[in-house]
Design a protein that fits this description.
Helix content: 25-40%
Number of helices: 10
Number of strands: 12
Strand content: 25-35%
Shape: globular
Strand order of the largest sheet: 6-9-10-3-11-12
Largest sheet: 6 strands, mixed
Length: about 240
């Protein structure tokens, strides 16, 4: 059963066609990956699903658990159980890590925050009272954002380049978090350029010029990383 169905989705930004009549279904409870070249529309797809400002003037439809998201803003979509982790997480001057995570998990205690931080390899005693600002590296902020998602226990999680800015030692923490999300019942969509991240998925899609040109097993889609292309009849000529 699919949790997310995208039907004939097209989106232009500043006159450029980014998504072109894209149709795809994401099955509930699986870890999916969306791969493809720079400019293919991967992040745009995630932003459109989340309802990010500037990415909602699309044609076609996005159905979440059978319900159209077309009339819903980002906050309403979040309440429905959709969340997105940014490739470059935001900074919040003066907001502590503890309060940042607590802001998304009302009626849950400090122990939930500590547990989430530990799951992404961060010592709560070291990080709880630190500010989510420039004093933290991009990789640290990314892990903190992922910890907040773990604490939320949300149904659909979109991770945009989850390994971006992450050092090799921390990468296994990210992969463990992805595994935990699945075991906890979440559907995960990994937007990635990385073969190592792709390997953590169970099903994958190849996106090119704003449309899905291939889908299937990880072994099938991983061929993209070897030859940087999968044979198809797509001319990859952007529209004017």
């Amino acid at each position: 059963m699919e949790i997310l169905e995208i039907s004939n989705l097209s989106l232009s930004i500043n006159g450029s066609h980014i998504l072109n009549n894209l149709s795809v279904k994401f099955e509930k409870g699986l870890v999916h990956a969306v791969v493809g070249p720079n400019g293919a529309g991967k992040t745009t797809l995630g932003f459109a699903v989340m309802g990010i400002e500037g990415y909602t003037e699309y044609t076609g439809d996005i159905l979440y658990k059978g319900e159209s998201l077309a009339s819903m803003n980002i906050y309403e979509r979040a309440k429905k159980g959709i969340t997105l982790a940014w490739q470059e997480p935001a900074r919040f001057e003066g907001l502590t890590v503890e309060n940042f995570i607590k802001s998304s998990i009302k009626n849950k205690g400090r122990d939930v925050v500590e547990d989430a931080l530990e799951k992404v390899g961060m010592n709560p005693d070291e990080y709880m009272l630190r500010a989510v600002d420039k004093g933290l590296s991009g990789g640290e902020r990314k892990k903190i954002e992922l910890a907040s998602i773990l604490a939320m226990e949300t149904e659909l999680v979109i991770l945009d380049e989850p390994d971006s800015g992450i050092d090799v030692a921390s990468l296994q923490n990210i992969f463990s978090a992805i595994k935990f999300l699945k075991s906890n019942g979440s559907t995960v969509i990994l937007i990635t350029h990385s073969l190592e991240v792709l390997k953590r998925a169970e099903h994958a899609f190849l996106l090119c010029h704003g449309t899905i040109i291939a889908e299937g097993s990880i072994n099938k889609i991983s061929k993209y990383f070897g030859g940087k292309c999968i044979p198809c009849d797509h001319k990859n000529i952007p529209e004017e």
